[in-house]
Amino acid sequence: MSELPEYVLDREFNAPRELVWRAWTDPEILHRWYGPGAETIIHEFDLKPGGMWLNEMKWGGNSHFQKVVFKEVAPPERMVWHHFSSTDATWNDIANPMMADWPRVLLTTVTFEDQGDHTGVRLSQVPFEATDAEIACFAEAMANMDKGWGAGYTIMDELLAELQAGA
């Protein structure tokens, strides 16, 4: 495949850019919206190039582990990372246990743009060093990715309103 599929989600938040950046980068806020429907535990969050975000999502008696390695951090404008979609409990990269052909790594870029007193956020993900089967799996799943991100963003809307109200 010559052209990689790219998932893009554009969203405008009713909050200033610095606050939206904080919602993405402060583990005390991030764990409240990331992974909606699960208990999100952030084991490590080192926001710098080469730093890691180690994330566990728990539901019922199950845990799903993910690792992010930051590649670029430019506050409050841009973050780029390699998203290891599934790891074991000691953060070693593994195949996704629910989708064998899901890409092991996604190149993720999040940009933040001032839009008056609002903030535009663009999330982009593409398979990184993926097999043809992984690329095809990602392309097929892209239509449903808005559901998870959208649910998280709805929670973030509420959190941003709380933070702006001083709650």
- Give the terminus-to-terminus CA distance: 49 Å
- Total count of helical runs of at least 4 residues: 4
Largest sheet: 7 strands, antiparallel
Cα shape: globular
User: What multimeric state do the chains show?
Assistant: single chain
Q: How many runs of DSSP E, i.e. beta strands?
A: 7
Class from secondary-structure proportions: alpha+beta
Please mark out the parts with pLDDT under 50 across 5 or more consecutive residues, or reply none. Answer: none
The run of helices and strands is EHHEEEEEEHH
The total domain count is: 1
Question: How confident overall, as mean pLDDT?
Answer: 94
Strand order within the widest beta sheet: 1-7-6-5-4-3-2
> What Rg do the Cα atoms give?
16 Å
Looking at this structure, what is the CATH superfamily? Answer: START domain
| CATH uppermost class | Alpha Beta
Q: Within the CATH hierarchy, at the fold level, what is the topology?
A: Alpha-D-Glucose-1,6-Bisphosphate, Chain A, domain 4
Q: What topology does this entry show?
A:
Blueprint: E1 7-13, H1 17-25, H2 27-33, E2 39-45, E3 52-59, E4 62-74, E5 78-87, E6 105-115, E7 118-127, H3 132-141, H4 145-165
Antiparallel strand pairs: 1-7, 2-3, 3-4, 4-5, 5-6, 6-7
Please describe the structure with a list of short key phrases separated by commas or semicolons:
167 residues, alpha+beta, Alpha-D-Glucose-1,6-Bisphosphate, Chain A, domain 4, 4 helices, 7 strands, 28% helix, 40% strand
